[in-house]
Write a sequence for this structure.
């Protein structure tokens, strides 16, 4: 059984508050920015930072490629809070650029 879509709309990484990728077939939520995987056990997301698993580069590449190939969408679009973003937007790897530092985009 998959997670409720309404729950997915509000799920964010507890560490950086960003969107996650949900892999229902792997019972996992994944933060590609931090390379952290959160388990989903008995349809309950385990969103504890201490319980998350940091994946290696090969696993990160596999998960990002899988998300792109299968059209897996982030749990939410951070830009949607400021604009009317489409709910049907497909996975955008650039949205998860691990080199991007959110603090650098703030106007100073």
């Amino acid at each position: 059984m998959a997670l409720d879509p309404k729950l997915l709309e509000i799920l964010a990484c507890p560490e950086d508050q960003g969107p996650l990728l949900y892999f229902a077939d792997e019972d996992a939520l994944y933060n590609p920015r931090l390379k952290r995987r959160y388990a989903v056990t008995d349809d309950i997301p385990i969103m504890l930072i201490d319980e998350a698993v940091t994946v290696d580069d090969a696993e990160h590449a596999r998960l990002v490629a899988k998300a792109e190939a299968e059209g897996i969408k982030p749990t939410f679009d951070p830009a949607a809070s400021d604009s009317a973003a489409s709910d049907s937007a497909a996975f955008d790897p650039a949205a998860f650029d691990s080199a991007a530092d959110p603090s650098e985009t703030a106007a100073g």
